[in-house]
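Table S5 (text form). Sequence records supplied for joint modeling of the three-component complex.
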Amino acid sequence: MVAGAFENGPVFIRNARLAGLESPLLFVSFVLIIASSFFFVGIRIFAPKARLPISAVRPKLEKRSSSRAAGNLRNLITFFIFALFVIIPSLFVVFPSVGAISDGTLQAAVAGTGIWSTYWQSVGLSYSIALAATALNIVAGLPVSVLIARRRGGIVVSGVFDTLVNIPIVVPSIALGVSIGMFWGGLTQIPEFWLLVFAHSSITYTYFVRSMVASIESIPTEVEDVARTLGGKPLTVFRRLTMPLSKYALLAGAIMAFTRSVDETGATLAVAKKLTTAPVLMVDWVRGTVPASSSAIGLGLGILVLTSFVSLLVLTVATRRM
Amino acid sequence: MPDIRIVNVRKEFRDVLALNDVSLEIRDREYVSIIGPSGCGKSTLLKCLAGIIKQDSGQIYVGDREVTALPPEERHLGYMFQEIALFPHMSAWDNVGYGPRVRGEAGELARQFVGQIMEMTRLNIASDTYPDELSGGAKQKTALARAIAAEPQLMLLDEPLGALDAHVRGVLRYELRRLVKELGLTAIHVTHDQEEAMSISDRLVIMKAGQVVEVGTPLQLYLSPKRLFTANFLGEANFIEGTVEESNQGQITVSVKGWKLNFAGSGFVKGERIVLAVRPESVIPAPDDQQSDREWTGSVRDHLLLGDCMRIEIELENGTEIVSQIPNSGLQPIKVGERARIDFAKDGIIPYQFPAQGLDLELALE
Amino acid sequence: MPSIRLIDVSKTFGRIKAIHNVSLQIADGEYVCVLGPTGSGKTTLLRLIAGLTYPTSGSIELDGKPVTFVQPEDRNAAYVPQQYALFPHMTVRENVAFGPLARGFTPEESLRTADEMLKLVRLSHRAASFPHELSGGMQQRIALARGLAGRSPLLLLDEPLGAIDARLRVILRYQLRRLAKDLGVTVVHVTHDQQEAMSIADRIAVLREGAIEQFGHPADIYGAPTSPFLANFVGGANFLEGTVVRKELDVTLIEVAEGFSVTSSGNAHPLGGAVVASFRQERTSILTSASLEENLVPGKLVSTSLLGVFLRCVVDLGRIGEIVAKVPLREALQQRLPDRVGDVIFVRAGREAVLVFSRPERALAVELEAF
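The corresponding structure-token record, covering 1059 residues in total, follows.
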């Protein structure tokens, strides 16, 4: 949306589809998936063995750059960059939203008239999908997390799982979207809502699992060892020890998966034919495919930003407690 | 190397007063150990001296220089942690050579210097050996060599042997002293192991709850501790409570649960409550076949061979328990259950006023 | 019937043989210490008995029943690891009640047992606290109470006093033994501290590089060690390498340096044999004047240091080497030894105090784990 002429991944997928360029698209996606997987695995294996030349010491330069003034300058520059590139652009949408209050758009939004009825429908859809996908992730993710964290099945097996779980993050979203879209999209017998849930699960699974694995790994194995020698069967140990000690990680992982699902555009575009989620609708509004005033766009996006802030707050509280 | 002076240092952490007006003087080339139970503030004191922690008030002088406000890298100290903390991505030799490198020295001269230090610490390891290939003792020696190679004015050792096996600790501690003395350094060694401190220090500083309890040479503190806590913390002791019956002409008579005890001493008044500290090795047991109800007799409750000593627990007829520890002479000890009488070695009884806060609190090791 | 029986147990991790054909029998109610340096395999041995890992070969029996591959929760052997591993999210009381609860007792019964145990370790007043609020010594007692609450007949302790201050350790170890004896539990207590093992074990199993070096009563291990390693690791000793030059009915003469021989009682070694003569530091006496006694040699007093009950004296015997003598403090002060550093004095060890070993295959320094 910024560049206009350029198109990012998800939009590219959709347009390519519409233009009938499916085969080249599939080929490109395939190549990207394989290449990034190899790259990822390669780094995993070889990076620890590399000896980087970081032991060189430059006393005078380091002393000067460690002075208090240098430290303050450093902090100032960093904050400036952070503000300019992250904070301000992310929240810029606030300005048109403010305008929406004065010119009557807000009333329309609350009343749900006109374009706003589709808006609230899409928002509702996005959140339902996210909720269902997250629940699915929790149920399917817990056993795998334990497998990876506790190396059940041996070091090799859990290592393989650990790598595979990271694939969705490493592979470019366009390739991912096409692949997922192809798989789930082809199963036309299943209702579209569930297809979207499954597609979103595929993408957000990794966030949940990573959070759980990190937490379970941080529980010393002796704690579980002791519990077992005291007579606790593995399920008892999981229920009364592992879970209570990881409850904040579970919450954090669930929230990350949830927000990622609400966020997801690419896979949705690849799968959905009739249903429209909130981000997809926003794309249409911005591109003008569905006409909407600029203050409506601002307000619509603003509401989404606001709700994600709530999620952010809960996430922060949860991670602090971990 | 200069003297160290710590003046009225105070440090508070949230709701705990870690250091409560601590003052200390350490002379050039002294090997001083600071000992005390966990939480007494010894580590905090060392960190303030190193500059790793900033004290709330008080001053620190190294020689004539006041270093109170200086950051650690400008105080020219060698610091050794309990966790050993060798740089894992550098070889052992490179670890030792880190100090000289940071100071800007490099090349052949520096390499020779590192070689000398390695030889001094008796570290025979190849130049391409990495820390994870070394044993615990060798790692500790490397950490020591690294601290020395930085040519510090003062060696600060924070539980340097804490991560090692008991056996290795018992051997390496003498190496530590030897190196420090050979190089003519001043060393301040913090540990919770009082036997370790006693065996290698010129002077000991005993701390409890953020304050200095007593300072002295090992012999002074072991044979004539001025405080009850010192008597309990440095080595073991039996504590006998009683009342003064008589005190004149350098002799004190104390009544303990109906029995009497006579020893050389002064400074107490008749009727005063008193606590006597008697080290186990000053309690000498002998078999007692007589059925008479003599004083200071009882039956042997347990005897344990500790190796170089024999530990005998005796339950006395007056209801108290006493522990004796005599060197293992290879002779047969009195059997468990048999009657024994005890004698106290001359000079083995150290008297104290009964503490106002109660005996348990005064002696508390936790 | 022995409580624990290990029959030729071995455990390999990849290429490392952590446990090497270990056979052991521990009787019901015995307090056994497994003593050894770090890396000797003590923790692995404990975990094998607990069922947290399985042997590569050999078998394990508990109370006469084979349990080699039985799960830990079915073995009834309570394990207390080095860092205690108290459950951080439960109160002290809930921690201690976990065992009975997991074994199927009702919550009321479990809490009652927990309260009993807490009274035993004198921590009833902290029942509602959380583990992180307690001191190291208290945490150790809670870990113990938790292990005992499940009423297991077997208690497996991994360095139970390792995290405790040296001074407290001396007090707590006797309490530990008394508690175990009062409750009649069999204990396997792993440690690297020979003083600890010597003072509370009924029997000690010395483990070295995965194999048992000697298993016996403390008096036997101390009085009759079967190797120089044992004489050094348990109690410490002086060692002189030499050759047997004369052998009579009950006396052996060993030449350790030109012109100097050590007399030892016993005759187990052949004439001409390469041996190591060793004598305990506390059986080495220091005399301030010469005499015609055997095993007496002059030397220079290099240093003295205070050990408490003893004064440790290092004496340089010239070409014979350096030896350490532990002199009872009172005696040492009477002889004014601390002031005599640098003087010539005399060292003596009685013939019955000299133990003789065959020269080990590896160099003596390596055998004694000098580094």
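Note: Chain A touches chain B through six residues (CB under 8 Å).
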